[in-house]
Amino acid sequence: MLKSEAQAKISSLRELISYHDQKYYLEDSPEITDREYDLLMQELIALETEYPEFLTEDSPSQRVGGEPLSKFNQVKHYKPLLSLGNVFGEDELRQFFQRIDNQLGSRPYEFSIEPKIDGLSIVLTYKDGYLKTAATRGNGEVGEDVTENVKTIRNVPLRIKEPLNIIIRGEAYIPKKSFEKINRVRAENQEDLFANPRNAAAGSLRQLDPKIAAKRDLRIIVYEVIHAEEKDLKSHKEELNLLINENFETVSAVYSDDKEEIIEYCMNYYEKRHDFHYEIDGLVIKLIDKNLQEELGATAKTPRWAAAYKFPAEQAETKVIGIEWNVGRSGAITPTAVLEPVKVSGSVVRRAILHNEDYITEKDIRIGDRVIIEKAGEIIPAVVRVLFEKRETDLLPPDFPDACPVCGSDAVRLPEEAVIRCTNTLSCPAQIKRSLEHFASKAGLDIKGLGRQVVFQLYDQGLIKDIADLYYLEKDQLLSQERMAEKSAQNLLDAIEDSKNRNLSQLLAALGIPLVGQKAAKILSKAFGSIDQLMKASEEELILLDDIGEKMARSIYTFFNEDHNREIIEKLRQAGVTMKEDLSPIIESDITGKTFVITGTLSSYTRTEAQALIEARGGKVSGSVSKKTDYVLYGDEAGSKLEKAQKIGVPIITETEFIDLLK
Q1: What is the C-alpha to C-alpha distance for residues 507 and 512, in angstroms, rounded to an integer?
Q2: Residue 570: pLDDT above 90?
Q3: pLDDT tens digits, one per residue of 365-405
Q4: How far apart are CA 135 and CA 226, in angstroms?
Q5: What is the DSSP track for 506-520?
Q6: Which residue has the higher pLDDT, 103 or 34?
Q7: What is the per-residue pLDDT across 515-567, written as a single tens digit (0 to 9) for each?
Q8: What's the mean pLDDT when you consider all of the chain?
Q9: CATH number, domain at 481?
């Protein structure tokens, strides 16, 4: 093939693939099969490989995903990305309109009303018409650079029609059908399921390997032009028209200057929410005039010219057909209502948590009752009330267990507690399984690849009976397990070996000592330096420590003086698990001696990682804001702690400022 012929063929293939992308992702009317599409892409990639001089950055072949990244770089946003204030119900909608009238005067203003996509906020930056960067919202000022992953999203133009310098805000989402398919595959592979499409989108967009993101059917719907150098956009309507003309998927907005009409529209929209191919959790109402938006301005967190009308939690009627009692690692026996399957908030609900005996008694829940359930926070099913008018006359209150449903040992409820507990702490299979799961979890020693299903499988087959047995597993034993190949078995053994070197505080948190969490574990590890010294401590010595009360001291003392627990610790020692705290010298910095409170979601660190960095430099992390707090480090979706800090005058710092302090 001549070069000129190859160039013409490449150009033709690009146009054809782009056409089919638009038909599939924007118009929802595909004209070819997935197989036919893949063949076109393979032909294009083959030609571009043979003739690399014709490869361009906007070619559809650039969507397949490049090499994995080592980390995400940070991107400072053009201007702070604010969150929307929420309004619930008709009264709060009227209050929102009244606040606008108070500032602008009571005259007609046109509003847009559009679906609020339940996804992950994203910012797209185009230079001379080419997509240059894509970033997450992060803390509103600084986000993560996810450009390589966004390039794999087929409804995002790699090049727009006009050579504009433009910054656009949108929402990354996964269609409902694609989400169901992802979870179906994960279930088949014995992987943890995503809780909802939003979590799936966030997890997919933050994959370091773009090839994984490319397989997840991510999409982006845009709704705002943050900045456009070449355009003088006077209204939100003009923004959306520009985005539509540039072949973006945009929100379907309606417009009105009648506030009563808008309120009625919002009240009646609830039933339409399932008509979308993506999840929505409300409507966004915003003034469309850009000058009026600027005149109204914003608070520290939210614009005054827009609000999110949030839908009420969806309720449904169903029947309680049984009550199950499940045993946790602490021995707590927790009731769960088994329900006739019913669809709530887009998913089928078969169970609802009942918390404890008092909850059942107060609501007078009986097997056979018709009940109203709802998803609290659109995630956790809860029984709201019993429909007593539909109760059958012969229904009796449920029996509460006096024996463990797993091991049959006595179950008791102590006077000061709300839960019933299994008394067989050392040998109850349910408690041992949960303890093993906790030991390997992120709250414990964070053993990668050792999730619930693997732990339960190893226990059920008799390969492990306690946490120490994990360190004596052999590869042949792992290879005998379902879905465990040579590489995954070796990776798991490597992860178990690596966990031997965690610090003492992580080990103490992993042991599952009643009432001892990560904070108390750090206090104990710093105070005693080794597990041997801690095991010698009396209750009186423990009580003298900050934040260690009488109940916790008694629990710690009892745990380490139980023969079975001492045997487990000795097995861990023989396996080579670290039993001492790393007493590395403190890194002197501006953080030394300062008290921090961390709130919201950080983009570069987990809260645990940020806390470790602070403590390594001689700082302290507290759970509450007071006048003794030196800094409040805030991230995305920071809440009441940030507001309190601003109210009492405590310095607040962004993640970028925190990184500067670390330096």
Answers
A1: 9
A2: yes
A3: 999 999 999 875 445 688 889 999 999 988 999 999 999 99
A4: 13
A5: HHHHHTT-TT--HHH
A6: 103
A7: 888 888 988 998 888 999 999 999 999 988 877 888 889 889 988 988 888 99
A8: 85
A9: 1.10.150.20
The stretches of 326-428 forming alpha helices (DSSP H) are: 357-363
Q: Where are the alpha helices (DSSP H) in 22-122?
A: 34-50, 89-104
Whether residue 359 is found in the same domain as residue 440: no
User: Given 281, 310, 339, which residue is the final one in a domain?
Assistant: 310
On whether the CB atoms of residues 468 and 575 are closer than 8 A, the answer is yes
Which of 79, 116, 594, 663 is flagged as catalytic? 116
Q: Is residue 421 part of a domain?
A: no
Whole-model pTM: value is 0.51
E strand map for 288-419: 306-310, 315-327, 332-344, 347-353, 370-376, 380-386, 411-412
Can you tell me the mean pLDDT for 95-120?
89
Cα torsion at 613, 614, 618, 620 (round to 10°)?
-140
- Which is more confident, 191 or 236? 236
How many Å apart are CA 65 and CA 204, to the nearest integer? 13
Q: Which residues contact 595 (CB under 8 A, 6 or more apart)?
A: 619, 620, 621, 622, 628, 629, 630, 631
Query: Does residue 359 lie in a domain region?
Result: yes
CA angle at 177 for the pair 172 and 180, rounded to the nearest 5°: 95
Listed in sequence order, the residues at least 6 apart from 219 whose beta carbon sits closer than 8 Å to its beta carbon are 25, 153, 154, 155, 172, 173, 174, 175, 249, 278
Q: Is residue 7 part of a domain?
A: yes
Q: Which residue range forms the structural domain that includes residue 35?
A: 3-63
Tens of pLDDT, residue by residue over 592-610, are: 888 999 988 887 777 777 8
CA-based end-to-end distance of the chain: 57
Q: Which amino acid is at 85?
A: G
Kindly state whether residues 215 and 237 are assigned to the same domain. Answer: yes
233 and 299, same structural domain? yes
Structurally, how many domains does the chain consist of? 6
- Print burial letters for 428-450: b (CB count within 10 Å at least 16), e (below 16): bbbbbbbbbbbbbbebbbbbeeb
Give the sheet arrangement for strand 652-653, strand by strand: 620-622, 595-599, 631-634, 652-653
Q: Which residues have a Cβ under 8 Å from the Cβ of 200 and sit 6 or more positions away? A: 174, 179, 182, 183, 194, 216
Same domain, 122 and 222: yes
Query: Do 323 and 387 lie in a common domain?
Result: yes
- Say if residue 3's pLDDT is above 70: yes
% of the chain with per-residue pLDDT over 90: 36
**Residues 561 and 604 grouped into a single domain:** no
In a 3-state reduction of DSSP, which class is residue 500? helix
Among 545, 574, 603, give the residue marking a domain's end.
574
Among 53-62, 136-145, 220-229, the minimum mean pLDDT is found in: 53-62
Q: Which of 269-273, 359-363, 538-542 bottoms out in mean pLDDT, i.e. has the lowest? A: 269-273
- Answer yes or no: is 369 within a domain: yes
Residues 493 and 524 in one domain: no
State the Cα–Cα distance between residues 401 and 335, nearest whole angstrom: 10
Main-chain phi, psi angles of 314, to 5 degrees: -70, 135
Residue 79 appears among annotated catalytic residues: no
CA gap 198, 210 in Å, rounded: 18
How far apart CA 242 and CA 647 sit, in angstroms, is 41
pLDDT at 423: 80
pLDDT, tens digit, for every residue of 467-497?
999 999 999 999 888 878 888 899 999 999 9
Task: Compute the chain's Rg from CA coordinates.
Answer: 29
Q: How confident is the model at residue 656 (pLDDT cuts 50, 70, 90)?
A: confident
Nearest alpha carbon to residue 505 among 605, 421, 611:
611
Residues 136 and 281 in one domain: yes
Compute the C-alpha angle 80/295/647, nearest 5°.
Answer: 55
